[in-house]
Amino acid sequence: MFKRILLAGNGKKFFVKDIEKDFHCQYGFVAAAELRKRSGTVKTNTGVSLAIVQPQFIDLYSRIKRGPQIVGQKDVGAIIAETGVGKNSIVVDAGGGSGALCMFLAHLCKKVVTYELREDFVKILEENKKSLGLKNIVIKNKDIYEGIAEKNVDLVTLDLPEPWKAIPAVEKALVSGGFLVSYSPSIPQVSDFVEAIRKSSLIWVKTKEVLERKWEFEERKIRPFTQMLGHTGFLTICRKM
Amino acid sequence: MFKRILLAGNGKKFFVKDIEKDFHCQYGFVAAAELRKRSGTVKTNTGVSLAIVQPQFIDLYSRIKRGPQIVGQKDVGAIIAETGVGKNSIVVDAGGGSGALCMFLAHLCKKVVTYELREDFVKILEENKKSLGLKNIVIKNKDIYEGIAEKNVDLVTLDLPEPWKAIPAVEKALVSGGFLVSYSPSIPQVSDFVEAIRKSSLIWVKTKEVLERKWEFEERKIRPFTQMLGHTGFLTICRKM
Amino acid sequence: MFKRILLAGNGKKFFVKDIEKDFHCQYGFVAAAELRKRSGTVKTNTGVSLAIVQPQFIDLYSRIKRGPQIVGQKDVGAIIAETGVGKNSIVVDAGGGSGALCMFLAHLCKKVVTYELREDFVKILEENKKSLGLKNIVIKNKDIYEGIAEKNVDLVTLDLPEPWKAIPAVEKALVSGGFLVSYSPSIPQVSDFVEAIRKSSLIWVKTKEVLERKWEFEERKIRPFTQMLGHTGFLTICRKM
Amino acid sequence: MFKRILLAGNGKKFFVKDIEKDFHCQYGFVAAAELRKRSGTVKTNTGVSLAIVQPQFIDLYSRIKRGPQIVGQKDVGAIIAETGVGKNSIVVDAGGGSGALCMFLAHLCKKVVTYELREDFVKILEENKKSLGLKNIVIKNKDIYEGIAEKNVDLVTLDLPEPWKAIPAVEKALVSGGFLVSYSPSIPQVSDFVEAIRKSSLIWVKTKEVLERKWEFEERKIRPFTQMLGHTGFLTICRKM
Q1: Is residue C77 within 8 Å of residue C65, measured between CB atoms?
Q2: Is residue D161 domain-shared with residue D190, that is, in the same domain?
Q3: pLDDT digit string (tens) for B177-188?
Q4: Is there a single domain that holds both residue D156 and residue D86?
Q5: Are residues D196 and D108 part of one domain?
Q6: D74 shares a domain with D47
Q7: Which secondary-structure segment (H or E) carries C24?
Q8: Closest by Cα among D196, D193, D201 to D173
Q9: Number of neighbouring beta carbons within 10 Å of residue A66
Q10: Minimal CA separation from B198 to chain C, in Å
Q11: Are residues C165 and C186 in the same domain?
């Protein structure tokens, strides 16, 4: 887990893991004694000033290991806003690979249990959990299609190729009023999932996609950026009622 | 605060405040003893079955009093995802009127202090706080432009017509690494705000808008809905570094 | 066909069909002699000034009879821009109902032949053709699935529930290098159509949707409009190569 | 101007300028006699089959010289759809650099007069005009801010850094009912232009942006493409009434 961020005037960032020893970078080194500061500025031995900041969750989060495809931050935000999970919520997660969604939810909720079949992903999950200092994540090297041991779960999140296979397990695990959110990149997956939900005891609330548009503000150059992320995935929100 | 939701087969919802006495609705009444159930079904005296659910935060949240213009859920989600505030965060909020954003953040964070000049809005804030059962909101009938008493704040959120006037107060209140997010519906406001940020000690991280597209799934009628919310506001994210 | 538009100061428009006789409106009447002007202003007998304009194609087009669902102007523009049809192009069209697309293309191209099975739509097509003064439209009360009599066609446009049924006829009708554009509101239709194209001698070029966002400019109120048309249809562009 | 396109089975395209002599490519050469075909297939001397197609306007258009920033096809389509210009329309264009918009409009309209101050762009315009075989374009090496010689113009299109400076000239040039469309990438330009229009004799009709979303259809991989063009420019449509 990173303990400090050092910022040069040109925007360059250095992440410091160990504040018990001097930190070396292209501008020389910063003495360990200086690294204990949580804010303000420090000087390298060559006289360069660097801003020092104690990293926030979001800084550490931006540095976790990621698999080829993760649930992006805009979609994580939508899941939280749609379901209203919070400090007392119990969440079950599956298929998230490196666990970007799982980690973010653990930061906000009481407990997250994540089901992951692949052992290489289990290792990444363990690493990410450790580097974020999250103690409330339980990683199970199990197949969620075969059942969810937890009961009275407030939210189940799925990022799976065949999410409909998890519905029977989810039906039993969710508390009354609890949510199921499935993330899928393609329409036929969503369509099959919505159909399966309609045959289940759960209710289909909505399917949506979230688009994010960033803007440039440089004097009179005020306009959306030319490049835009055109698509990540569709979020399907269901509920036990 | 609502204690139960009753759901008829046709999707109709009834919100029950008092479970100590019988609840009357168009299908007859449900006896108080039945209302104590947290899930399953109850029957009215006329024999109609209703599902009974203990409301989750998001249900109560959907019923709070709202002013003419609030920060919508998609934007609330984006603020949380961009800043990573969580259980230990201290938030200061201003200008949110009825407090939709303030309430959501209080649900997730340690404490929210909200500055609101208008007394009519202070009353609505008090009501909403009560109906959501949130104890960690401090409502101040004060002008945030004149200063923020809190220190080491992790996030300040502004929904103000002249957000640049709050920058000096925010600079002092934020912890190193802390965030300022301003929500504005129009470009000239955003432009003036970004310019003021550039003259301040804060860093402009990004300005973005979030678009949400809902989809229909009815057999082969799989397509985005015809009507779409085309715009709410721009989110400008800044940071103390 | 309308011959003149009269514009009141408040933006109110009156469409004049007959300039051989006086035109009566809520502001009195305008004498026939005055209506012969093609621009400038005219006065009613009560002394009200009205701007007089000779209608352009787009004004007449905005007044044609429309069925429940037509190919909107943004999609018409995309079809023209993608295919580059022009003064010498021969177009075959089917399923357009009231013919909004057919009329626009006839305005630009050499000739449009439109296939329409329903007799009520044939009548509307005749009316619209007449009111726009377009002489280069041939309306056939025939089923395009059964064949296209025209050869060396530059563009075929389809707005049909089962567009794949027209592919064999289109393959024979198109000139080498010619285009087929199919407009469908739902994904499964598009998907089935793309699959059928891949089994045909035609090439799938692209499938796209066009979104249009209108902006408000009122002093500092500079922002996208709140309401937006979220979806009309998908355009699938194919080519004979 | 290209006379033929040769297509290999792998999608590779070769553009042939001269059909009077053999054409050499990586698959050997195609004899001149064969190149006179307008469709079907030809064989190279090494026995490779290539489809032969007579290029359509859109093929030639895709190969014209382009400056750093041009009005893209989606915006060209929107201009045509909004204004309804056609075979009889007279258009004046300015600031288009390499003339992508000017060329497309000339393909559809009676005549386009384009004002271009920079001599290097005038040369590119001449080349593009020639390679597209368009005879109805008049290129004037003049400043449109100083006046438009044409009268009764149906459409003026501007792609200029200070489009408001052209308004007095446009007011005189447009026919009653005629259109002015200005293309600008940034909001402050649009804002200043709309304000100037409001002080002129022209009417502001609308300002809009056009977004295009392309879709992937590969078996069950049916979804929007990840990359999307997030922004080109804003179109402001005005009219003389």
Answers
A1: no
A2: yes
A3: 999 999 999 999
A4: yes
A5: yes
A6: no
A7: strand C23-25
A8: D201
A9: 14
A10: 21
A11: yes
From D6's Cα to the closest Cα of chain B, the distance in A is: 38
Share of chain C above pLDDT 90, in %: 87
Neighbours of B1 (CB within 10 A): 11
The CATH code of the domain that includes B11 is 3.10.330.20
Asked whether residue C236 falls in the same domain as residue C118, the answer is yes
Q: Is D71 contained in some domain?
A: yes
Chains with ≥3 CB–CB distances under 8 Å to B: A, C, D
The mean per-residue pLDDT over the stretch D207-234 comes to 96
* Final residue in a domain of this structure, among B34, B55, B76: B55
Q: What is the pLDDT of residues B194-232, one digit of tens each?
A: 999 999 999 999 999 999 999 999 999 999 999 999 999
Instruction: Give how far Cα C164 sits from Cα of C97, C180, C188, Å.
Output: 18, 11, 12
Both D132 and D210 in one domain: the answer is: yes
Are residues B231 and C231, on separate chains, in Cβ contact within 8 Å? no
Name the stretches of chain B with pLDDT < 70: 68
Give SS3 for A4.
strand
| CATH code (residue B216) | 3.40.50.150
ipTM higher than 0.90? Answer: yes
Within 8 A by CB and 6+ apart from B29, the residues are B22, B23, B44, B45
Chain A residues in contact with C187 (beta carbon < 8 A): 187
Domain count, chain B: 2
Cross-chain residue pair C213–D215, CB shorter than 8 Å: no
Please tell me the distance from the alpha carbon of residue B209 to that of residue D102, in angstroms, as a whole number: 34
Using DSSP, how many helices (H) and how many strands (E) does chain A show?
7, 15
Residue D164 is classified by DSSP as G
Instruction: Please answer whether residues C124 and C150 qualify as being in contact, where contact means their C-beta atoms are separated by less than 8 angstroms.
Output: no
Reported confidence tier of residue C68, pLDDT bands at 50, 70, 90 = low
Q: Which helix (H) or strand (E) holds D209?
A: strand D202-218
Nearest by CB to C228, from B187, B189, B228: name it.
Answer: B228
Instruction: Show Cβ contacts of residue A7 under 8 Å, excluding neighbours closer than 6 positions.
Output: A13, A14, A50, A51, A52, A53, B241
Report d(CA B124, CA B118) in Å as an integer.
Answer: 10
Residue after which a domain boundary falls, among C35, C55, C75? C55
Element (H, E) at A102: helix A100-108
Host domain of residue A9:
4-55
| Cβ–Cβ below 8 Å for A187 and B73 | no
Give residue-wise pLDDT tens across range A141-160.
Answer: 999 999 999 999 999 999 99
Give me the helix-helix angle, C73-83 and C100-108, nearest 10°.
40
Residues 6+ apart with CB under 8 A from A218: none
Question: Considering only CA atoms, which of D21, D7, D88, D94 is closest in space to residue D52?
Answer: D7
Whole-angstrom CA distances from A9 to A22, B199, C118, D130 are 20, 15, 71, 53
CA distance D188 to chain B (A): 9
Q: What is the DSSP string of B167-195?
A: HHHHHHHEEEEEEEEEEESSHHHHHHHHH
SS3 label, residue A220: coil
Chains interfacing with C (3 or more CB pairs < 8 Å)? A, B, D
Q: Is residue D150 in some structural domain? A: yes
The rounded distance, in Å, linking the Cα atoms of C232 and B228 is 11
- Do A92 and A45 sit in the same domain of this protein? no
Q: Are C146 and C172 in contact (CB under 8 A)?
A: no
Contact list, D188 vs chain B (CB under 8 Å) = 191
Task: Give B54's contacts in chain A (Cβ within 8 Å).
Answer: 175-177
Whole-angstrom CA distances from A156 to A189, B81, C166 are 18, 19, 45
D11: CB partners within 8 A, 6+ apart? none
Amino acid making up residue D80: I
